[in-house]
Amino acid sequence: MATSPIPSRPQGARGPAVAFEGVGKAYGTTIAIDTICATISPGTFVAIVGSSGSGKSTLLKTVNRLIEPDSGRVRIDGQDVAGREPHRLRRSIGYVFQNIGLFPHMTVAQNIGIGSRLATGQTLASDRVGDLLDLVDLPRDFAARLPEQLSGGQQQRVGVARALAGEPGLMLMDEPFGALDPVTREALGEQYRALHERLGLTTIMVTHDMAEALLFADRVWVMAGGRIVAEAEPAELIAGGCGAEAEALVAVPRLQAERITAMRSGG
Amino acid sequence: MPIDWPRLTDLLAQHVQLSFAALGLALVIALPLAIWSVRNRTVAGITLGFASLVQTIPALALLALFFPLLLALSALFGDAISPLGFLPSLLALTLYALLPILRNAVTGLRSVEPAMVEAADGVGMTGLQKLWLVEAPLASTTIMAGVRTAAVWTIGAATLSTTVGQPSLGDLIFAGLQTQNWTLVLEGCLAAAGLAITVDLLLGLIESGIAHRRHARIWGAAIALALGLALALWPAPQTDRPVVTIGAKRFSEQYILARLIGRRLEAAGYAVRYREGLGSAVVYRALASDEVQVYVDYAGTIWTNEMQRQDSKPRPQMLAEIARWAQTQHGVRLIGPLGFENTYAFAVRPDDAKRLNLRSLDDVVRVAPDFVFGTDVEFLERPEWQMVQKAYPLRFKARRAFEPTFMYRALSLGEADIISAFSSDGRIAANGLVVLADPKGAVPSYDAILLASRSAAADPRLIAALEPLVGAIPVEKMREANYRVDRDADKQSPSDSAIWLDRAISAKTEDKNP
Q1: Please, are residues B419 and B375 in contact by the beta-carbon 8 Å criterion?
Q2: B125·A118 Cβ contact <8 A
Q3: Is A121 part of a structural domain of the chain?
Q4: pLDDT digits (tens, 9 = 90+) for B476-503
Q5: Is residue B228 helix, strand or coil?
Q6: Which residue in chain A is spatially nearest to B139 when comparing CA positions?
Q7: Which structural domains are found in chain B, ordered by start?
Q8: Which residues contact B167 (CB under 8 A, 6 or more apart)?
Q9: Domain of A222?
Q10: What is this structure's pTM?
Q11: Distance of residue A189 Cα from the nearest chain B Cα, in angstroms
């Protein structure tokens, strides 16, 4: 994967900085996110973890305006996202989500090329589609296939390729590998992390799997009740002292790992 | 009877034009409405509710309702809006086709998965791009299913447009039904069904082509449909002779007389078209607006229906008043009476007449509580019935309405005991029915009268070609001509019967003027 020609950004490029400035959103009386202030420095891989309903997806979607916050603003490289037309903003940001959302009536190549078709009316050159398929480790002849002919893991690889096609600096991933089997999930996570580094991206990934967050992210935000209750590097979280919610989430993979180790030495 | 192919293909072409136009217009209206409905619940409630409401109105009634509406509009806007023929048919059929298209389109668009919408938003589609690139393609099979339903309905319902003067395959069905010519009915039905099935199959190919992304299939079927429409739109060979449109109401005598008039005009060098099967309320309007140039009506009908008169006048005075009224109101010329009358004649079975000693309507008053009254579909609503009731206190056990053809059957079969027959009908004599006298003169005179529209009246050659028909048709000859078409065995077509009648009356005229 790393040896393929670069179908992407100039060497050494860095993804943008992202800043949340007092971002809040409520649905009726239910507060989804509660005036969140946080910043992400360029080129960082941030994982947002938390239980269901903690507000992590809502927070993520305020970045590409799939959700409009009631208060506060989100800035990308200092520029308020509210100042840009939603569809133009979204074309400049990669978006991958759990349901994948490949268009079933379009081939893999057409799915990958959709951003180019939207922006310029041109289909994406087949070389470029091939490069993107290389990037996500899919055979080039998949270009002509329909999504229904692919496995879930292959579909999400196409989903990632589609998100990368517009050469975004920022990638938003909403439980991107949540629906995949553990082996595929691990492999895809690993490969995406490598891509993140090679392409110099800024990535915000929402996940409910703390192990995934610890293994792939530079920084982990723990959310509960619409607030960020802990923010740390993976190593700090494992070391402990980041609060009860973080402890509870970290405890799960740690305990699993300990049990497996015990079983191995015991057997 | 051999199939009249030129007529069949002409009617088929008109049928295709009408139903395709209605379907096309319905698509143009329903699809944007569906998109709007999907985005707005209030709009969805209103549009789907309206389309469903329209669907509860019988197609025949819907067609008829457009007549007064368009009549009012044409009074406002003049000749551009015609209350007859293509326009009312198009509007009624379009309304009818709305529901299946609208409902399926709304269902199809609503069933697009939220993940598709999120993906479309996520990749940065504008609302329009999302609709065009994602929602419409994903909903297209459901939408096509609705279009197919609408197409079949429209083609079927288009047969009814005959009643408002739009030629369609319904001409064959209505004419066949009235003259009990089942071959003709079948011909019309099979042609309409064949057309509906063909269009449905082609649309089905498009539907499956969309579902399986087979572009060749979609284009093939679309081209076949387009070719069919192009053929239907291909102009008929132009004639350099002036064209006269002859109207006819929906019973045998009218079909025969229209053909007789047609023969005479063709002999005089005119090209003729027939608009047959028109409702009685519609046909005079068609003449008044010059869409029909010539037809035969009956003095009493014009007197009561058009002039709204309730009184009875002696025959010559009545004809003179009608002539004056039609001339001043609509520029319509009364060429003259044909020489026979076709009035409402109350008829009973001969055995009843003998057993109960029935000779006149006065006698019926006595037995009415035991009698079932069979009428044609319009009689009970007509002023003549009010006039008869005023003169004779008739209280029947029950009333049943039939198409005229079936009324005679009903009397023979005992389903009715007295019927409002037509005095020129050959079946009265053939069945030995007893016609009851009207001693109080309640029913006005129903002399058959030849009417010409404003433009026809201004053509002396046309009037000269038709004037020999005035006073030339005695009632016996008309009855015989009617019976040739109405009898069960050895039936003739109205045009064959018209040939017979033409010869019969020509012979008579020659006898008179040696």
Answers
A1: yes
A2: yes
A3: no
A4: 899 999 999 888 788 888 889 999 999 9
A5: helix
A6: A105
A7: 5-233 (1.10.3720.10), 243-341+445-486+498-512 (3.40.190.10), 344-435 (3.40.190.120)
A8: B10, B11, B14, B275
A9: 18-102+169-266
A10: 0.75
A11: 21
